[in-house]
Amino acid sequence: MPNPFDAAGSDNEQPTTDTTFAVPLAHAAPSAPDSVSSEGTSTAAAGALVNSATTCNSIIETTNVVRLFGDFVAVSGATLSVKEGSVTALIGPNGSGKTTLMLMLVGLLAPHSGSIKVCGFDPVTQNHEVRSQVGWMPDQFGMWDTLTCYEALVMTGATYRMSPEESAQRADELLNLVHLMEFRGKQAHVLSRGQKQRLGLARALMHRPRLLILDEPANGLDPRSRIELRGIIRELAEQGTTILISSHVLAELDEMVDSAIFISGGRTVAQETVDEARQARSNWQVRATDRAALVSWLDSIHIAFAQNTDGSVLVNIAGEENAARFLKDAITTGVPVVEFRPQGGALESTYLALNEERR
Question: Signal peptide span per the entry (predicted)?
């Protein structure tokens, strides 16, 4: 059976990113061909996914959303719910439909079928209302290269009908937030890719959006900037901003998000909180100063294990409570354990498990 995580196509198969997101555009929902369905996702199944994931005060709700590019089905029956005030990851392989779905959420693409509600509004028929409450940062944010960083932010404020005084104050606030104040008077073309990413984040935040949607925001950032980005995102969440973020760096998402939505082949295939993912993960790496003692103890309690080349062993333990009990028993028995940790992050474990189930 083919692996659905190797889906054909790319998230890049869409119109050029609109860099004037603040200005409402006219969209009419394209008509879906009769032959298009949700590709195996039944209405009942989609409804069950929403019911299991939905909590009170959801800021994003989609049901059976379908989007095509010619004959290619980019999104096929996507159903999801995002709670207001949360930081939620959208996870999937290249070509799974993440970017296309995000473009529909912000009103830059219209679905062929299905329903979308963002901040209580339909992005197709109430496009202006959605854009006024959503900040959008695409993977590659277009820049006005001849404008300074400060001017770019002030102009963005003007497109949201902010007063000159408010725009000026907000621009300086955000330049400080994203650590670009030293480039305040520099033209955007002198910025590195990582610095442009940070300026793009500032632009997306200019109008104090209720919902922030970020597509691969860490691309091009150095390690320090990635750490600072995580801090900024958590700070925004604590202030009440809802954040939907896509990234392929799952270990970073573990430290950044509250929950995750997994998408494959244009369909939402799972949704869970990070705490649930941590409880579900099962592969743990153990290393002891006396490897023979560790192996002997594992044999005596009939726990299967795999030996790694670095001298550690890999054991399968269901959940963190059982893992804690395992470690306590090992130490009590006298096994000199010096390292005990999960193999991979919580979200990575879920991602790989979904991958394995669909081989």
Answer: none
